[in-house]
Amino acid sequence: MLVSKLGGSMTLLQVYAAVIRTFVESSMFEDALLTYIEAKKVGVELRLCNFLLKCLVKENQIMYARSLFDDMKSSGPSPNVYSYSVLMSMYTHGERLCLEEAFELLREMEMNGVRPNAATYGTYLYGLCRSRQVTSAWEFLQDLCQRGTCNTYCFNAVIHGFCCEGQVHKAIEVFTGMKKCGFLPDVHSYSILVDGLCKQGELLKGYDMLDEMARNGISPNHVSYSSLLHGLCKTGNVELALGIFKRLQDQGFKHDQIMYSVIFHGCCQHLDLAIASDLWDAMIHHNFVPDVYDYTNLIYALCRHSYLIEALEVFELMLEKGVTPNIVTCTIIVDTFSKEGLIGEAFIFLDKVHQSLGIAPNLFTYKVIIKGLCKINKSDDVWEIFADMIKRGYVPDAILYSIIIDGFAKALELQEAFRLYHKMLNEGIKPTIFTYNSLLNGLCHDDGLPGFRKLMRDMIGEELVLDKILCTSIIACYCRRSNMKAAMEMYKKMESSGLSPDAFVYTCLISGFSKVRAMDGALLMMEEMEKRNIEPTVVTYTALIIGYLKIGDENQAIKTFISMRQAGIVPDDKLSCILGLGNDGGDSDYYSQKAKDAT
Description:
By secondary structure, this protein is an all-alpha fold. Helix content is 74%, strand content 0%. The protein contains 35 helices and no strands. Helix 6 runs parallel beside helix 8 (118-130), helix 18 runs parallel beside helix 20 and helix 26 (433-444) packs antiparallel against helix 27 (449-461). The protein starts with a helix and ends with a helix.
């Protein structure tokens, strides 16, 4: 009817094509296929079939796309290389990767005399890389290169694949091979490599790649610059990133919202609040609408500088603007409440967002709350929150267990700490160095030497790799227990492991030797400090002086005191009290005279 009314200005097939297009745009795929079947009665063109096939693939209508393709093969028009390439993209780019089907499609093309082109091969290579068979993709590409059936897209797919696997050196090898095969890298080739290099921390090489782009007349795009800025911010070089950002702006480069978000995130994490505030204003001025990611960064910056009230105001602002916060946003605010000791307010805030926004705490939120409760010694509340977390289906990890154990250990509630430690072991969760360190420190401050020995056996059984913090804790614990033999064994083990003892370790050892009146050992440790250019503290000198006074060697005690003063160290209240000095250590002349008499 429409064709007759148009007076021949449109053919029946053109009208069918328009109807099919309308159905596809309205996501009425079954109607589109029914119209296609009707159109076949008058004869459809391959172009219309390919259009419909592409639309179905784009909308991930796999069943309909396969049905259409099978119909084209059985009753025509026969699929061409474009048809096969479209179906190949469905197998390699779709939600479900179907690599076997993609390979079979290549074989089918050869059997049917349809020669795959570079686009078909490039799509297949992308699938290989997506399935993490990047080495196979590179070998396949090298074979294609010899046959002369590849293009820049093929190389970009493999370069991207290696970068995703973190093998940037292999990506550069492909990049070099691309140029040897006579293909000029495009902006995508360079951008992929810049991103890969920056993610691996190879920022200088990434910058050199941008420089090479410019020399070859290729203007870096937003992706290239965003990758470099992100890499710089990630490694803490935010000021350098900000400098590049501003220089690009001065040169007339138009930043997009992603670039603003990247640099804004870095400034919020590391720089002054004023700089972050200026960037925020610039984003608004350039008509960029901040998203939840930007608002969360601003809230973090305010909380980092202890502006909790202002952070809450920004939180309300994002709600007014219709931007829904996520659990990360809420956790940052809860963490700040907890750090300020405002646990009650943290719970009120959580209840509010849960009821009004449906945002429930996640495992990280629970960690923040529990850490805050441990800080103010609310052990009963810790168990209540812990139980609620389990009830909600969250499985505590080693970090959470360690946080609670540390809280109990600092409060000297060692029974609770060990109760949780054994629960942790029973559930198959491996304790960390932080877990053992917390328990050891607790035992050191409590009369728990048997427990200490049992814990040491557990640690040896776990074949735990000792770090500096744990070694220091063990040495301090042995020294407090006057077990200097064991302390020295750990000291030697620490050195043999390549861990350098610091002033605190030496002070513990000197204090331990002084406590058992083994002043030769204390003096030896003092000499070791001098050899390593480690400056003794007032606590170090105090421990040595007390040791000499204990054995009745007042002359040596006075000499040590004079050495301390000559080093520019002022006695603290403890030493002043022991030696009968004024608060300013003003009676040192007397001790100087005593030192001269002693010599």
